[in-house]
Amino acid sequence: MNGIAAALGVGLHGLAFAMVLYLISVGLSVTMGMMGFVNLAHGVFAMAGGYIVTNLINRYGVSLPPAIAMAAVAVAVLSLPIERLLYRRLYGGDELDQVLLTMGLVFMSGAAAQYLFGALQQPLRLPPALSGGLRVGIAEVSAYDAMLIVCGVVLVTGLWLGVERSRFGAKIRAAVDNLRMAQSLGIDTSRLFSLTFALGSGLAALGGGLGAALITISPGYALDNLVYFLVVVALGGLGNIRGPFFAALLIGLADSACKYLIPQFGAFLIYAMTMAILLWRPRGLFGRV
Amino acid sequence: MPAVPTDASAAITAHVWRHRYRAHEALPWAVALAAYFAFPNYLPLAAQTLATILFALSADLVLGYAGIVTLGQAAFFGTGAYTAGILAAHGWGEPLSGLLAAAVVAAAVGLLSGLIILRSSGLTLLMQTLVVAALLHEAANKASAITGGDDGLQGMQVWPIFGRFEFGLFGRTSFFYCLIVLFLCWLGVRRLVHSPFGRSLTGIRENVVRMHAIGAPVFVRRLVVYTISAGLAGISGALIAQTTGFVGLDSLSLERSGTVLIMLIIGGVGRLYGAFVGVPLYMVAQDRFSSIEPVYWYFWIGLLMVLLVSFARGGVLGLCDRLWRRARGRR
Amino acid sequence: MSAAAALETRRLSKSFGALTVANGIDFRLERGARQALIGPNGAGKTSFVNLVTGALAPDAGHIHLDGAEITALAQAARVKRGLVRTFQVTQLFRGLSVLENVTLAVCERRGIGGDMWRPVGRHREAVEEAYALLEPLGLAADAARPVATLAYGHQRLVEIAIALGLAPKVLLLDEPAAGVPSGETGRIIAAVESLPADIAALIIEHDIDLVFRLAQRITVLVQGRVLAEGAPEQIAADQAVRRVYLGERDRR
Fold this sequence. Notes:
The complex is a heterotrimer.
Chain A: H1 2-35, H2 42-60, H3 64-87, H4 95-117, H5 128-131, E1 133-136, E2 139-142, H6 143-165, H7 167-177, H8 179-184, H9 189-210, H10 221-224, H11 226-236, H12 243-261, H13 268-280
Helix pairs in contact in A: 1-6, 1-7, 1-9, 1-11, 1-12, 2-3, 2-4, 2-9, 3-9, 6-7, 11-12
Chain B: H1 10-16, H2 27-38, H3 43-65, H4 74-89, H5 95-117, H6 122-142, H7 144-147, H8 172-194, H9 196-206, H10 208-213, H11 218-244, H12 254-267, H13 274-290, H14 297-311, H15 315-330
Helix pairs in contact in B: 3-8, 3-11, 3-12, 3-13, 4-5, 4-6, 4-11, 5-11, 8-9, 8-11, 9-11, 12-13, 12-15
Chain C: E1 7-16, E2 19-29, E3 34-38, H1 45-53, E4 60-65, E5 68-69, H2 75-80, E6 83-85, H3 98-109, H4 124-134, H5 152-165, E7 170-174, H6 185-193, E8 200-204, H7 208-214, E9 217-222, E10 225-230, H8 232-237, H9 239-251
Parallel strand pairs in C: 3-8, 3-9, 6-7, 7-8
Antiparallel strand pairs in C: 1-2, 1-4, 4-5, 9-10
């Protein structure tokens, strides 16, 4: 019984981690698939969300839900000029230029964060309701993890339904599928790029803010976690909305299990697993061939 | 029929003579020697700069010539550094054999990882270069019994070169050690890029479909150059380990992979001399500025990258090219 | 015709899901032949080229080059045996000079493409061979120019020069004049007409006038099948071909 309970606990924690990973990475997958843009700076938006949320809560006493909503909206709006002024001119261009530009943004944002908030990690002060533990059947799960899972499920369902049912979602799918075709159908792709980018950035901020107690907020955030975000996208398949979810699930659960069972290996096994999967399926688990 | 131009063989001659040494190629070496006499107090920094030039040169080979965008070059740099470092910390401090061992181990890692990752392209390849480096970083981090983990590798004892030239405090030995190794490696790389093999790498970068259609073994070529580049990066890491007597986890980090790209971009990619321009500029600037505001160095570097990509593609050498052409056009 | 053909396929088949691009193609190209492969859009012409050159793997069937089976060989190995193609959309090393484009091909054919030590310049014979290929095509004056700065018609000629640098036995010319302004097609036609006689050339072409001018034999491909094959006059008189192919042309 103990073993099963522990496994469930580990699984639930992994699930919570997966939700955060997915929220952050899904926008990256769509921008890379649709615009063909290697955006290494995507984690910056999650970091920005994290900083906004922790500071609103810790300094100004705002409660968690409005803080997260404000962070998501603020980051989505702020990402618009970045896309317009910097990213747009490199769409369809040289991969190296994209890498350099976004790497530059990562470096700048890390230094800016340190200047504004110092080198230390930003703690996420949780309301009392979220700091305890919960009992789910025989398993023990922290209230925070439970909150992440519930929020994640709601957001993911909303996102999937939105992309599948709405006109905007149909346009996104068309553009990912075949950009030229979408253009010739009269879709204003320039506007679509901006909106999609803002949506992805907002979701990242949401993930960064919600998960601030799981992936701690510090100036090195965007750089240190870059591999994880990219792994989720590469395993999930580019330009895919569902793929990254299952990839995040895989990474989240594997990470949680590894940390519980064989902590001495750290993230090593996750990376090894990623390489093995990509060797077997170079376009990711759910990529189109 | 168009008349056969009078200088029918001019094109052949130009092509055939392209690998000849030119006077300006002596410039970096003259500058290095001049720096030795002009700044005797900065020899340790100069030695590090020379070793880093080799690192950037290794990156230029894969990125500038073979067109493989890599974010994991530090994997090989760090492998070389740890190989030389661990040897020296465990009783074998002979530097030249340490260098050789570092090259071999790093090249082996390059070959093995290349076998896996060079089958993909684009973003997946980019990500895999990153994962290979992250994997090694994590391995070095966790195997702290051997590598010292977070604290870095302590207690390296590097013996004098040929039993005679000690690595002293003033860095004279280090300087010439790095200079000579860099020079030899540069000779080799220069030879390589002018060979049919090197030109075929450029062909792969320019149009891989066409390379397949002319019957070139594209995968093998890329794998070979990836391995060579890894070996060179390993030598560079070993040089820095041996001359500083220390290896830290940062030698395997993403920052290291990223900054070497930046240095290369500042100088100019795919021109063999970008490394010789970009690395000194970067390292000297870092030395100047980080003593004032160490934390915000990366901010300015990041800004510089954004500006370079937006306005000055081709780096310093590309800028020189354009100015030179404009000056000639005016005449 | 008992001697082995330069190129022969037997029951060559390939499908992508429900789409069949090659449906049991039996095809012969004699040594030194000038043959054309025609067919409406989507007939499977380019897929046929890709199958023969090894860019696509067939589901079934055999490919023979000079009597030897090459079905399982990799693309590069087929090139080494003298099976060479050009592309419908130019595939060149755009940043490199014309001479260097051809030199790269010559080096690969001579087996020195992997030489890592001697500079290209020390392989003077390879460079001279490449240059010698440029002269008859009228490209010698442009030898040192980057390919990207050439007019498209000239780029098409570079494409042919590269192919010749590989010393082909069988040359597949995929729409050699595609995209070239009509005023410049003359040079390309001349280049194809002056191909060495021992090369067997298969011209995949859309332009019927060009086909009737260049080919001694014509194969008509429709929906991944050989519909008809014969001398130009036979094909021109063939009712089925007129219906499927020429009819389509008239409608356009």
